[in-house]
Structure to design on (1020 residues):
């Protein structure tokens, strides 16, 4: 009787695990580049385009650089607790050492730690300051501009452009990234003598902003600085338009999600809103022209920020592999440190001391539907620049 | 301060009336069939998406407003015999099965409409806000409140003044007694199930211009329906109405006094009410 | 197996089966870390099974205990530099305290109201952990949890840095917890729990205080689940906020119910199945949750006793076919 049960268990186990065994048998010699992205779960709206960009980078650029590389997508389910076991397993099972992604900062921070433990290289696509700040690591690099630069390149120029707008109101999601944006904004308000007339902290799960909007109306600000992002920004802008806020004050979204978000919101709501952007497809740089061309030919789409973010992260991994002429993570890290390269926003370079890429951040103004040259022509870039925390005041202490 | 409080109460009523529509269906299906439907949020989700699709196809929000709930209601009514398999299961297994169904609905929506959220514009005449001095209120939300009031009155008449209503009310007390009266309880079940689903679908269409349409709006609606139903009392029509409005007002007033807590306020309220009044505000003892 | 508890021979067989499973997992699974995840969730499922299977309490609050355990262990290691024994004991202690508190409030209500109340507590604890970001790291999670070696008076007994040794620790704890719970469910205490499930007022009438027993069951369940949470923190080397949210409760519940609550061993099957399937399927198809949903529906409708009852049924059929013995009654779903 005992043997029967054991046999059963073994049989059931073999049946369940068969695909895993098959998968192992297919392991090839190519260097595998693994992008960790939210392909299912509530954040998959950002994960799917990111996957497209990540995939395209490896497909199109590896052969161009004379490398043999293979793309592996890992679904983090929008949950760091689900993502980490998968990353550890991928590293153990398929010997993956090169990682990029994800969508969420909480996943990215944990990833940075996990990849360091695994002895790999990680190019991060998230905005949390810690990645190249207090939690910086030898094995971690990051392409996007963190919160400091995002605020410097949006709040500061807009205060200059709207000299009569002296009363600013902030809308902050109560978690680490939102608080970092708020801290940086307050420093600028203080420096330039702008009055900070109020702030709203809302939870990350909020979808209903009407109550908050009433508070904003009562404070009578000239500018609302929106520090949340993604779906929450979308909901906030919609409801702000509903309450007629746009007629009474300017709105600045410091951390805009780009093209997909604009198409979701629509130009009637967007019109007149300022956005901080990491990337815009109309920017005139040689590399960006090539990227737009590549996405048009290979994916029949215009590249969005989500796509280009992961595209560039994987591009950096590939450039590191190419320059290092080796797939030893330590060599790749050395190759990436201080690298200057042709990036989507112009010539970019990686700072050796904190592994942060130095790139442009844009301030854009959305235009009315009547002025659009084509369906994707949502905004005009009104200013741009590069601001990064100086080494002297950086919290990064790399060991 | 007074005008701000008034605004928040008005906001709360606007949100609460949508909560009522989501919750009332769940409440009456539970009261009648003892069926705990975790997939109820799925009807809300489908309502929003079918509404979006109808707006895309016909260009008319009004058509979607009427068409989508009818669609959802009809589908639920027709598929009720399949659900009836679940009535016989224990509550635990009902939860497991309908949890599975909720996941299936959500992922199917992703397959059909993709993960990126969609935008449904409010109809032309309802764009913008009306102002009474300091008090500003969006036209569309006023319209939602009106729809809610008309609907609540209609439902009340249906429940109190029609034969079907009498059967339904009796059914929440004892289905066996109704069968003894020679009424085909199966048809009443199907109609009730369809009605509840249609109302959740209507809530979905109405909410679309306010909060957009995205595949993960189901669980949020479910959580709210749970809270409203428990606060108001399971199986009670007026309980769902009172619960919906109360939760809406709690949510929007906490956003004045303690914005960070507006997400958790309704759960605290619910736990407090449950520990004091175990059967909810208006639930049967 | 009798309807009211587990007899001794049966539980010995099950423990042997569990030891065999635990020994086989790292060999058949593609990686040790996947096996570790399985074993940790087996522990969590055992805790859930005690409440759901024995007392019939469907609690959406298991994630609270899991998360509390994670934070207790994580903080003990990060802040105090404590060893595994102390850190896991901290999880045990915090888990039982939180469970006592929540149990004493929620267990006063029955049925759907009980379920809703646990749901509300889960949401509150989530917001609490989210808000106390100074302690818990909030949305970023509690980073920098290491795996200190298991040592006694300065001598290292088991370094936990390697994956296999950590797996060994988890396995030992898993088997110990199983043995403990098998013992508890077989005891008179376990019989009272089943009696409460079957008829609470009659249990009261014969002189037992159902509330006290329910709270005790909660404490036991909370302790076990919190230890799983603590191990999970050490496994991930950090504590994500998602350890304490509603989806964690859902995940533990799904594992327990999928495996079947009729026997403790059902939880083992449920946890391993869900962990392995979700890992494999999510690699193949990003909409794999659709398949999970379908599986849940099928199990709820066709197999109310869970996968365990299916295994029993097959075993019975085989025995009847092969040995020609008279079939024992296939295990029936216990709750109704």
């Amino acid at each position: 009787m005992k043997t029967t049960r054991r046999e059963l268990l073994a049989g059931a186990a073999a049946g369940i695990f068969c695909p895993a065994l098959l998968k192992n048998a297919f392991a090839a010699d190519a260097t595998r580049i693994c992008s960790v992205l939210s392909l299912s779960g509530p954040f998959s709206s950002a994960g799917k385009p990111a996957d497209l960009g990540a995939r395209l980078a490896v497909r199109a650029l590896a052969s161009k650089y004379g490398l043999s590389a293979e793309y592996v997508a890992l679904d983090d389910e929008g949950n760091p607790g689900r993502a980490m076991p998968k990353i550890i397993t991928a590293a153990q099972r398929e010997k993956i050492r090169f990682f990029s992604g994800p969508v969420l900062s909480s996943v990215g921070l944990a990833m940075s730690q996990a990849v360091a433990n695994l002895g790999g290289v990680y190019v991060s696509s998230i905005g949390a300051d810690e990645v190249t700040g207090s939690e910086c690591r030898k094995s971690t690099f990051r392409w996007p501009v963190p919160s400091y630069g995002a605020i410097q390149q949006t709040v500061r120029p807009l205060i200059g452009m709207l000299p009569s707008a002296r009363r600013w109101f902030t809308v902050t999601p109560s978690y680490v990234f939102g608080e970092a944006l708020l801290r940086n904004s307050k420093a600028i308000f203080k420096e330039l003598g702008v009055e900070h007339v109020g702030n709203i902290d809302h939870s990350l799960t909020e979808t209903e902003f009407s109550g908050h909007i009433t508070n904003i109306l009562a404070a009578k600000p000239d500018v609302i600085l929106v520090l949340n992002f993604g779906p929450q920004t979308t909901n906030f802008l919609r409801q702000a338009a509903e309450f007629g806020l746009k007629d009474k004050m300017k709105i600045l979204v410091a951390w805009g999600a780009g093209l997909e978000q604009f198409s979701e919101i629509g130009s009637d709501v967007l019109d007149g809103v300022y956005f901080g952007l990491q990337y815009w497809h109309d920017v005139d740089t040689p590399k960006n022209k090539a990227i737009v061309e590549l996405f048009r030919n290979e994916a029949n789409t215009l590249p969005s920020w989500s796509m280009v973010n992961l595209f560039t992260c994987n591009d950096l991994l590939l450039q590191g592999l190419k320059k290092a002429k080796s797939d030893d993570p330590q060599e790749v890290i050395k190759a990436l440190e201080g690298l200057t390269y042709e990036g989507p926003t112009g010539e970019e370079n990686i700072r050796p001391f904190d592994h942060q890429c130095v790139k442009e951040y844009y301030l854009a103004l959305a235009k009315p539907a009547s002025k659009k040259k084509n369906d994707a022509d949502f905004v005009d870039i009104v200013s741009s620049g590069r601001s990064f925390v100086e080494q002297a005041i950086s919290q990064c202490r790399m060991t | 301060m007074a005008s701000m409080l008034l605004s928040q109460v008005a906001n709360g009523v606007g949100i609460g009336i949508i909560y009522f529509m989501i919750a009332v269906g769940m409440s009456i299906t539970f009261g009648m069939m003892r069926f705990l439907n975790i997939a109820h949020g799925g009807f809300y989700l489908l309502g929003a998406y079918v509404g979006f699709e109808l707006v895309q196809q016909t260009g008319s929000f009004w058509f979607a407003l009427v068409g989508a709930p009818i669609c959802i209601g009809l589908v639920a009514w027709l598929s009720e015999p399949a659900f009836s398999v679940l009535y016989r299961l224990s509550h635990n297994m009902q939860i497991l099965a309908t949890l599975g169904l909720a996941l299936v609905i959500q992922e199917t929506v992703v397959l059909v409409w993709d993960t990126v959220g969609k935008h449904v514009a409010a109809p032309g005449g309802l764009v913008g806000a009306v102002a009474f001095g300091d008090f500003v209120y969006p036209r569309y939300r006023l319209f939602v409140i009106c729809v809610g009031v008309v609907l609540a009155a209609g439902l009340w008449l249906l429940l109190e003044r029609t034969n079907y209503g009498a059967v339904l009310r009796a059914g929440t007390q004892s289905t066996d007694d109704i069968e003894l009266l020679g009424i085909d309880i199966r048809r009443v079940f199907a109609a009730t199930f369809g009605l509840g689903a249609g109302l959740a679908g209507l809530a979905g269409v109405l909410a679309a211009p306010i909060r957009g349409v995205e595949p993960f709006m189901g669980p949020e609606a479910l959580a709210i329906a749970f809270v409203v139903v428990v606060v108001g009392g399971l199986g009670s029509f007026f309980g769902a109405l009172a619960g919906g409005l109360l939760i809406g007002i709690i949510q929007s007033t906490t956003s004045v006094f303690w914005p960070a807590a507006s997400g958790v306020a309704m759960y605290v309220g619910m736990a407090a009410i449950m520990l004091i009044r175990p059967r909810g505000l208006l639930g049967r003892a | 197996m009798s309807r009211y508890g587990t007899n001794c021979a049966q539980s010995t067989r099950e423990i042997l089966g569990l030891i065999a499973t635990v020994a086989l997992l790292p060999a058949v699974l593609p990686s040790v870390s996947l096996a570790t995840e399985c074993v940790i969730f087996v522990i969590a499922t055992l805790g859930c099974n005690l409440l759901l299977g024995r007392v019939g309490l469907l609690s959406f609050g298991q994630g609270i205990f899991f998360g509390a355990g994670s934070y207790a262990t994580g903080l003990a290691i990060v802040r105090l530099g404590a060893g595994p024994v102390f850190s896991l004991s901290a999880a045990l202690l915090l888990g039982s305290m939180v469970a006592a508190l929540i149990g004493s409030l929620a267990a006063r209500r029955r049925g759907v109201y009980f379920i809703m109340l646990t749901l509300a507590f889960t949401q509150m604890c989530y917001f609490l952990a989210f808000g106390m970001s100074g302690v818990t790291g909030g949305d970023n999670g509690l980073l920098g949890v290491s795996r200190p070696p298991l040592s006694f008076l300065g001598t290292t007994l088991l370094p936990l840095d390697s994956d296999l040794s950590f797996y060994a620790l988890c396995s030992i704890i898993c088997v110990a917890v199983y043995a403990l719970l098998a013992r508890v469910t077989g005891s008179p205490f376990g019989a009272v729990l089943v009696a409460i499930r079957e008829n609470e007022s009659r249990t009261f009438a014969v002189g037992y205080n159902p509330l006290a027993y329910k709270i005790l069951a909660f404490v036991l369940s909370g302790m076990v689940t919190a230890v799983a949470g603590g191990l999970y923190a050490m496994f991930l080397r950090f504590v994500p906020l998602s350890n304490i949210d509603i989806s964690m409760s859902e995940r533990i519940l799904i594992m327990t119910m999928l495996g079947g609550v009729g026997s403790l061993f059902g939880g083992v099957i449920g946890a391993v199945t869900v962990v392995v399937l979700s890992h494999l399927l999510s690699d193949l198809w990003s909409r794999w949750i659709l398949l999970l949903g379908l599986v849940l529906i099928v199990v709820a409708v066709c197999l109310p006793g869970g996968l365990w009852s299916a295994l029993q049924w097959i075993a019975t059929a085989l025995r009847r076919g092969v040995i020609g013995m008279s079939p024992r009654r296939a295990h029936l779903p216990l709750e109704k």
Q: What stands out?
A: Chain B has a mean pLDDT of 86. Strands of chain B lie at 129-132, 135-138. DSSP finds eleven helices and two strands in chain B. The CA atoms of residues 48 and 161 of chain B lie 31 Å apart.
